[in-house]
């Protein structure tokens, strides 16, 4: 079993430059996170975008869709910004025969305190264990696409049903 990890940017890969929150999306952090975690699952990392999810367009979502559909692997993890992750997950629902798990972070991986490491670990495990379908995993929970929302007030994801 091989895993494809597609990176699109988002908070996981953000680099902040000052206290006024100026940032850019840096190189994907997932490779170093998996190396530091001693992950042994065979994987390929494929960066396709470096955007905050609020900046993603319909064309960007189509690129994500096309990349996932064309991937030879059946197990896919997508790192993605949290604000529009449910929108992208819904776009991917028509892809059959693949287990697709989207994850993100509330704090960049470059920060000392971050949820990104835990979230990526959960996503890698979920992609290997779950049946075909589209899921979001955040903060130790797994949600089916179309049944999750980001609660902005609480800063977490929650089921809608």
TrEMBL record:
Claim: Transmembrane helix is one of the keywords in the record: no
Enzyme class: hydrolase
Gene3D superfamilies, A to Z: L-asparaginase, N-terminal domain
GO molecular function, one term: asparaginase activity
Family annotation (InterPro entries): Asp/glu_Ase-like_sf, Asparaginase/glutaminase-like, L-asparaginase_N, L-asparaginase_N_sf
PROSITE patterns to which the protein is assigned, alphabetical: ASN_GLN_ASE_3
EC number: 3.5.1.1
Domain spans labelled L-asparaginase N-terminal: 3-151
Taxonomic superkingdom: Bacteria
Record's keyword annotation contains Hydrolase: yes
Keywords: Hydrolase
Name by which UniProt lists this protein: L-asparaginase
Active-site residue list: 11 (o-isoaspartyl threonine intermediate)
Transmembrane segments: none
């Amino acid at each position: 079993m091989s895993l494809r990890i597609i990176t699109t940017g988002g908070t996981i890969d953000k680099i902040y430059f000052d206290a006024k929150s100026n940032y850019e999306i840096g190189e994907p952090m997932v490779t170093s996170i998996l190396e530091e975690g001693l992950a042994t699952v065979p994987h390929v990392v494929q960066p396709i975008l470096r955007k905050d999810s609020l900046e993603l367009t319909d064309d960007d979502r189509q690129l994500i869709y096309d990349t996932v559909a064309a991937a030879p692997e059946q197990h896919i993890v997508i790192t993605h910004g949290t604000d529009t992750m449910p929108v992208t997950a819904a776009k991917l629902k028509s892809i059959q025969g693949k287990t697709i798990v989207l994850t993100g972070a509330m704090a960049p991986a470059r920060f000392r305190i971050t949820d990104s490491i835990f979230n990526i670990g959960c996503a890698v495990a979920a992609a290997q264990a779950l049946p075909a379908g589209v899921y979001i995993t955040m903060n130790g929970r797994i949600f089916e696409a179309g049944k999750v929302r980001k609660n902005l007030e609480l800063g977490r994801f929650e089921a809608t049903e």
